[in-house]
Each structure stands twice: as structure tokens, then as C-alpha cells.
Amino acid sequence: MDEIVKGEMKKAEGKVKEEFGKVVGDRSTEWGGKVDQAKGEVQKRAGELQQDGVRDEGRGELNKVKGKAKEEFGKAVGDRSTEWGGKFDQAKGEVQKRAGDVEREGRRDEGLDKPAS
What we know:
Layout: H1 3-24, H2 27-52, H3 56-77, H4 80-104
Helix pairs in contact: 1-2, 2-3, 3-4
């Protein structure tokens, strides 16, 4: 089974788990379901990127999604360290994505020979 299908299944399982948690009033199960949905989205996106053959640009996008999930989880459980770790991971992902964009566009060395103003 490919990663796209596995990711969709993980998202569906997470939604069921989240709704179950809501019904029984168990916040841990509810948030566990939300985390599973985020993991499923990352897995699905990874499968799409594998098909597209994308490297740094895609990895950066994935790291941004993972970081957002980590941030939201940290907010939900009141763990500021996890929350800020997620924000940091998002920033790293953005840098990685932009580096991939530049490399893909062949602008790796653009502007390095220009004197600073």
C-alpha cells in the first residue's frame, strides 16, 4: 500500500478517535486523534512528494506541517516547550523549503558576487 493511501487511512482513524474522545469526554483521546490526523496528513504529503521526486523543498514543507502539529499539541496540553519547539521546527522547515526553491530554480549562487551596499 502506498504512503498516500496509508496517510488517508491514518487521517480517518484519527478523526474517529477524536470524535470518540469528544463523545466520552476524554480530552487525551480527542487530542490523540487530532495528532493522528496530522501524522496522516504528513504521511500522505510524503507519498505525494515521493511521486513528484521533490527533495529539500518537499522536506521543508513536511517539516513545517510536523512543526505545526507539534505546536498545536503543545498548546492543547499546556506544554510551552513543545509548543515553541513546534514553532522552531516550522521555521527550520521554511528555511529548508526556500533553499530547495532556490536550488530548483538554479539560483544557488545568485548575488554572492555582488558587493554589499
